[in-house]
Amino acid sequence: MPSALNWEEKLQCARDCGYDFVEISIDESDARLARLEWTAQERAQLRETMQKIGVPIRSMCLSGHRKYPFGASDPAVRRRSLEIMEKAIQLSDDLGIRVIQLAGYDVYYEEGSEQTRKDFADNLKKAVEMAAVHGVVLGFETMETEFMNTVAKSMKYVDLIDNPYLGVYPDVGNLTNAAKTYGTSVLDDLETGRGHLVAIHLKETVPGKFREIPFLTGHVDFPAVIRKGWQLGVRRFVTEMWDTGKPEWKADICFAHDKMSEILDTME
């Protein structure tokens, strides 16, 4: 949705298009990270707005760790990563958010190493313990980089941490690109997360491109991945898209809802 909209307008748009809830973005931009600094009054006002419109915010896409990753070689950046995590969990607790989607990067803007992976795991453990205190579930997003672009790779860290508050929140667009690269099956990969999938991002992609692809113009087999996710117990599906300045932005949002709902409504 256009950033110029206020939260009441955003939630109203979601309601108009038939969505059950909205996922809030906390990306690496200063404007989105500033959401973590909302005052108690601003948080209370947003809760009132959610109740007024009838559409809650129930999940968070926390991609701000791309700039401030758990595994950064700079200790100051690692400290900032945990500060962001703590504030994101507190915001989730205040707004009633149940699931935070974590970016599956040890590092992004530098070269990964054995040390970055160790630091990632160490700080991930701290993050999960923080989330558990507030009853907020963390789920890895499967990303576009080699570090964690499949559910199977995510599960290595889920098994390592071994905590019920850490699971996998896969992005089926990214999974489809990874499967094309490796010559593997998206459905088999989803199966490796059995019992640990907390939600699914429904996103369109084409080979080599991961963002801003209109729904049903790419190569993601939505009926197959939704059916598989449903069989694995997933009941939270989020259509992920970006505002690209198109005048028909709201029609695109409604289109995504309607086309994905046509599939979901056949699930039993």
- Distance separating the two termini: 31 Å
Shape: globular
Radius of gyration (Å): 18 Å
Biggest sheet, open or closed, and with what strands and sense? 5 strands, parallel
Which structural class should the secondary elements be placed in?
Answer: alpha/beta
In the CATH hierarchy, what is the architecture at level 2?
Alpha-Beta Barrel
CATH topology: TIM Barrel
In DSSP terms, counting alpha (H) and pi (I) runs of 4 or more, how many helices? 10
Question: Short description, anyone?
Answer:
With 268 residues, the protein is an alpha/beta fold. It contains 10 helices and 7 strands.
Could you please describe the fold and organization of this structure?
With 268 residues, this protein is of the alpha/beta class. It has one domain: Alpha-Beta Barrel (TIM Barrel). It is 47% helix and 11% strand. The protein contains 10 helices and 7 strands. The protein has helices spanning 7-17, 30-33, 40-53, 75-95, 114-134, 151-161, 172-182, 186-191, 222-231, 249-264; strands at residues 22-26, 57-62, 99-103, 137-141, 166-168, 200-202, 237-239. Strands 1-2-3-4-5 form a 5-stranded parallel sheet, with helices on one face. Helix 4 (75-95) links the parallel strand 2 (57-62) and strand 3. It is globular and about 45 Å long. This is L-ribulose-5-phosphate 3-epimerase. GO terms for molecular function: intramolecular oxidoreductase activity, interconverting aldoses and ketoses; L-ribulose-5-phosphate 3-epimerase activity. Residues 14-243 form the Xylose isomerase-like TIM barrel domain.
